[in-house]
Write a structure and sequence with these properties.
It is a single chain. It is built from 14 helices and 12 strands. With 377 residues, it is α/β, with parallel strands linked by helices. The chain folds into 2 domains: 112 residues, Aspartate Aminotransferase, domain 1 (Alpha-Beta Complex); 237 residues, Type I PLP-dependent aspartate aminotransferase-like (Major domain) (Aspartate Aminotransferase, domain 2). The strands form 3 sheets. It has a 7-stranded mixed sheet, with helices on both faces. A 3-stranded antiparallel sheet has the order 9-12-11. Strand 3, helix 5 and strand 4 form a beta-alpha-beta unit. The chain is globular. The termini are far apart.
């Protein structure tokens, strides 16, 4: 068996300091997306136990279009639509699968997808139709791309795809300007709320709700994706969309049609997670206090604070990011180096994720250790 090409790729990654390996958890959590510390919470454990006690199945046994469609899926979708204010909801097993299915299924060949340059890999993997990447958070560049496309005689629909809170930079999309842009061009606006769900907005409904108000939830030209494995502490993804597009996804989204349905047990847990999120304002306030505390440290160290629970510490060189992460891990902080292609060339970084697993005192120790290690470089 020939292994040369694959080994050559791995050797190249090793030489560049980019070889990935699975690593165990170590020390205090500064790397997960379990922002409200729900993943191991009593509330979700109890929800799982209660669901098992009333006979909810662990596995679905088939795709949703065969025998895999379970009452827990339908109950979750109905409750999620009410929670987020959407017309309908479709539940996927992962956010990656949901994003890829949206990108691959809804836009048509005569359409144009305009994506932020930092849009998640899952959305990029689904791209099948004409698309253009525009500079990060540059609404004018998006507008210009649409105008040029129309001027060339194209008459299809425009789809604008962004994350509301970017996973590696921790900055927010300019939602008011994007909503206005979509309205001006009669475009569909695709919002990935993965890192905002449960953390922002009334009841944790996300940044669209926080920035634009409830009247935009369920708008006919807005589709939002809320992952369940980050702030909600569970697994899967909820796509809020008009009924027409939900029906189209059920009939044409290959990632939905040909996948075994998500676990009914997990659907029951997500239902509980939505209820927990609805009453978790104190936890969101506590998390924002950690964000402010971290921001003070970032300023002290001469670093740019993101203003969110994701704080990137840009190092630059891949090897330096790896070494700095290893040094902090040795001091008891579970923090990982993020390298290209996940982030642009020359921007290798530490991604400090703030969760309710840590305290302000833990943050003080982390940043003091970071300051000491950076001084050695």
């Amino acid at each position: 068996m020939t292994t040369g090409p694959h080994k050559a790729v791995l050797d190249t990654l090793t030489a560049k300091g980019r070889l990935r390996r699975l690593a165990p958890r170590r020390g205090l959590d500064f790397t997960s997306n379990d922002y409200l510390a729900l993943a191991e919470s009593h509330a979700l454990r109890e929800a799982a136990q209660d669901a098992l006690a009333r006979g909810v199945a662990v596995g679905a046994g088939g795709s949703r279009l065969l025998r895999g469609n379970h009452p827990e899926h339908e109950a979750l979708e109905e409750e999620a639509a009410s929670f987020f204010g959407g017309e309908t909801v479709l539940y996927f097993s992962t956010g990656f699968a949901a994003n890829a299915a949206i990108a691959a299924t809804l836009p048509r060949q005569e359409d144009l997808i305009v994506c932020d340059a930092l849009i998640h890999a899952s959305f990029r993997d689904g791209l099948r139709t004409p698309h253009v990447l525009t500079p990060h958070n540059d609404v004018t560049a998006m507008d210009d791309a649409i105008v040029r496309w129309r001027a060339a005689g194209n008459t299809g629909r425009v789809w604008i795809a962004v994350e509301t809170l970017y996973s590696m930079d921790g900055d927010r999309a300019p939602l008011p300007e994007l909503v206005a842009l979509a309205a001006r061009h009669d475009a569909m606006l695709l919002l990935d709320e993965a890192h905002a769900t449960a953390v922002y907005g009334d009841r944790g409904r996300g940044l669209l709700h926080e920035k634009m108000g409830a009247q935009y939830e369920g708008a006919p030209n807005i589709i939002s994706l809320h992952t369940c494995g980050k702030g909600l502490g569970a697994a899967g993804a909820l796509v809020c969309l008009p009924r027409l597009y939900r029906d189209f996804m059920v009939n044409r989204a290959r990632g939905f049609i040909y996948s075994t349905a998500p676990s009914p047990l997990m659907a029951a847990v997500v239902r509980a997670a939505l209820n927990v999120s609805a009453g978790a304002q104190q936890e969101r306030t506590q998390l924002q206090a950690l964000v402010r505390h971290a921001g003070g440290w970032m300023k002290r160290l001469g670093l740019a604070a993101s203003g969110s629970q994701i704080q990137p510490i840009i190092v630059g060189e891949d090897s330096r990011a790896v070494a700095l992460a290893a040094a902090l891990q040795a001091r008891g902080h579970d923090i990982r180096a993020i390298r290209p292609p996940t982030v642009p060339e020359g921007t290798a970084r530490l991604r400090v994720a703030l969760t309710l697993h840590v305290t302000p005192t833990d943050l003080d120790v982390l940043f003091a250790d970071l300051e000491a290690e950076m001084a050695k470089a």
